[in-house]
Amino acid sequence: MGRLDGKIAFVAGASSGIGRATAKRFAAEGAIVAFCARRAELLRSLEAEIAEAGGGGHGQVLDIGDLDAYAGALETTAARFGKLDIFVHNAMYGGFSPLIDTPIAEWRENFRINAESCFAATSAAIRIMTPLGRGAIVNIATISALRSVPGLGAYAASKAALIQMSQTFAIETAAANIRVNIVVPGVIDTETMRGSFANDPTIAAAAAQAIPMGRFGTPEELAAAVLFLASDDASYVTGHCLLVDGGKFAQLG
Questions:
Q1: Exposed (0-12), middle (13-18) or buried (19+): which is 169, by Cβ within 10 Å?
Q2: How far apart are CA 194 and CA 205, in angstroms?
Q3: Choice among 70, 93, 155, 236 that is catalytic
Q4: In this structure, is residue 1 part of a structural domain?
Q5: What is the layout of strands, in order, in the sheet containing 178-185?
Q6: Rounded Cα–Cα distance for residues 59 and 165 (Å)
Q7: DSSP 177
Q8: CATH of the domain at 200
Q9: Could you report the per-residue pLDDT of 1-40, keeping only the tens digit for each?
Q10: For a surface tag, which of 18, 117, 220, 244 has the fewest beta carbons within 10 Å of its beta carbon?
C-alpha cells in the first residue's frame, strides 16, 4: 500500500531534476500526478516512465509565469479528478550577478517567477482544498534564501519571500486542515546545478567537498523530503522549513 494511495497531486516544474523525481515518487506511492513544465518532450517521457512503472501521470506544457494559466491548471486538475490533495511548487528563475549590477527588470523577473507565481498557485490550491477540509502544499525554496550567497541576491530575495509567504499561508490555513511547508535544498545534482558550475567537474568536485557530507544531494533525496511533508506522516507539521542540504546550513551557522 502506497503512502499516497487515492491522492491527486499537482507538481510544477516537473521536466527534470527535483520536480521530475517528485512526480515519479508520488506516482510510485499511489498518487495520480498531474504535472507541468515548458518542455513537451520531457513531459511526454515522464508520462511514459510513470506508466511503465504502473503509475498514473498526466503532463501539460505550461509557463508558470502566466499566473492565470498556472492557477487555471490547478483548477482544471481538480475538476477532472474531483479534488486536489497535494500541490508542489517546484520552479525557479535566476542568474548570477552582483546585486549592485542587477537591473530592476531582472530583479522583478526573479520575483515574478519565484514569488508571484508561487503566490498565485498556492492561493488557487488553498481555494480548491478549503471546501474539502484538507490538503498539503509544499513549496521549494533554496538554502541561499537563508544564508547570503554573493551573486545570487535577487534569486535569494525572491525565494526568501516565498518562505515568508508560505509560512503565513500555513498559519492562515491551519484551522482548515491545510498544511503548507517548505523544502529548502542545498546543492542538488541537477541539470541546472551542473550548468551553474559551467559543467566543469573540477569546480563541482571542489564545491562538493565544501559540504559536510562531502557530496551533492540527489533529486531523489529531495523527493523523499517532499513526500514526507505531503503525506499523512506529516499530519501535524505545517509552516516548517525542512533543510535538505548535507549539513551545509549548520556549518555556515
A1: buried
A2: 11
A3: 155
A4: no
A5: 56-61, 32-37, 8-12, 86-89, 135-140, 178-185, 241-244
A6: 27
A7: T
A8: 3.40.50.720
A9: 799 999 999 999 998 999 999 999 999 999 999 999 999 9
A10: 220
89 lies in a domain? Answer: yes
Active site annotation includes 93: no
Going by pLDDT thresholds of 50, 70 and 90, the confidence category of residue 203 is confident
Biggest alpha carbon–alpha carbon distance for the chain: 53
Q: How many domains does the chain have?
A: 1
Round to whole Å and give the CA distance between 249 and 253: 6
Classify residue 200 as exposed, middle or buried by CB count within 10 Å of its CB (0-12, 13-18, 19+).
Answer: exposed
Is 56 within a domain?
yes
Among 110, 92, 99, residue whose Cα is nearest residue 153? 99
Q: Is the pLDDT of residue 173 over 70?
A: yes
Residues 6 or more apart in contact with residue 253 via CB below 8 angstroms: none
**pTM for the model:** 0.94
Residue from 213, 162, 166 nearest 187 by CA? 213
With CA atoms as reference, report the closest residue to 243 among 229, 60, 197, 101. Answer: 229
Output the pLDDT for position 190.
77
Using DSSP's 3-state secondary structure scheme, residue 190 falls into: coil
Asked if residue 203 belongs to a domain, the reply is yes
Question: Measured in Å, how far apart are the chain's first and last C-alpha atoms?
Answer: 40
Domain that holds residue 91: 8-252
